[in-house]
Design a protein that fits this description.
alpha/beta; Nucleotidyltransferase, domain 5; globular
């Protein structure tokens, strides 16, 4: 990713990726280049809303201060928030990753705090929009993306515009039924830990299980195989409905794609139609760990561009 440290460069946007585990913020130019260095802090998803909002505000202030910027120097602030959220009103809804922030008007609060344009969408929508404009989906008309992390997210971008659906809940597949629960129970960090625990009666994080799998631990390898198969079902449902040009996988768990890609591909090709089975590629985000906040910045870029003159 290109870094742009020219203080005369116009169009600086602050993007903030707010997940259940971490908050990552950074400055991005309107051309999609990083401006300075990003900043990351743990979310503490079960902490009070005052504590969490303090961390969000602190992250934005840190990025501004580290780049010698003020709120007057930026185009706006983009927020990509783990969902579900009310996109139109900028309110966090009944979010399992942020239980203390239910019905919290985050967009209004950030706008009042910094006095600039604020855009807000769910984190999956933001990430996939960013990848469709500046990343792995650039040049493809229909981009389907999944975020794999604390939870499971999904988004659709058509001709570089988010498809939100009738109630703005398009892509909220995490609650879809699967086995004895929901698909997110299996396709998530906690799902990986659960599957490993069933095999070993040991409690490990997804990162630890990935390390074990790369050391050829058979139970860890089996866990990632089961994860890949479960993910393939979610991807297959979506591909058969949407017929995308490309599928992009982002989020922290996508870093273990080498461990789950083969079983995912085998099941995916088995359960989708012949034409997409032959042509549709599944790739990791190009923007990597920066995809979330860069996608959040892309929300602002898109809203500003589409404002009436």
């Amino acid at each position: 990713m290109v870094h742009d440290d020219n203080p005369a460069n116009p169009g600086i946007i602050i993007g903030v990726d707010i997940g259940g585990t971490k908050i990552r913020a950074g400055a991005v130019t309107s051309a999609g280049n990083l401006y300075g260095n990003p900043f990351t802090v743990p979310t503490g998803g079960n902490d009070s809303k005052e504590t969490i909002t303090g961390r969000i505000i602190g992250s934005i202030n840190t990025v501004l201060e580290n780049n010698s910027l003020s709120a007057k120097d930026i185009v706006g602030i983009g927020l990509g928030v783990t969902g579900p959220i009310d996109i139109k009103n900028g309110t966090i809804l009944d979010c399992p990753q942020l239980p203390t922030m239910h019905d919290f008007p985050l967009k209004k609060m950030i706008a009042a705090q910094f006095g600039c344009h604020v855009s807000m969408n769910n984190d999956a929508n933001a990430l996939v929009l960013g990848e469709s404009i500046w990343g792995a989906g650039n040049g493809y008309p229909v981009v389907l993306g999944f975020t794999l992390g604390t939870g499971l997210g999904c988004a659709i971008v058509i001709n570089k515009k988010l498809h939100l659906g009738a109630t703005e809940m398009s892509g909220e597949i995490w609650v879809s039924p699967y086995r004895d629960g929901t698909i997110e129970d299996y396709v998530s960090g906690r799902g990986i830990s659960m599957m490993y625990r069933k095999l070993t009666n040991k409690e490990k994080s997804a990162v630890e299980i990935a390390d074990l799998a790369r050391k050829r631990d058979p139970h860890a390898i089996a866990t990632w195989s089961e994860f890949g198969q479960s993910l393939a079902f979610a991807v297959a449902w979506s591909v058969n409905i949407i017929d995308p040009d490309i599928i992009v996988l982002g989020g922290s768990i996508a870093n273990a794609m080498d461990l789950f890609n083969d079983p995912m591909q085998a099941f995916l090709r088995k359960y989708i139609c012949p034409a997409p089975a032959e042509k549709t590629r599944v790739v990791k985000t190009i923007l990597g760990d920066d995809a979330g906040f860069m996608g959040s910045a892309a929300l602002v870029r898109q809203e500003i561009q589409h404002q009436p003159a």
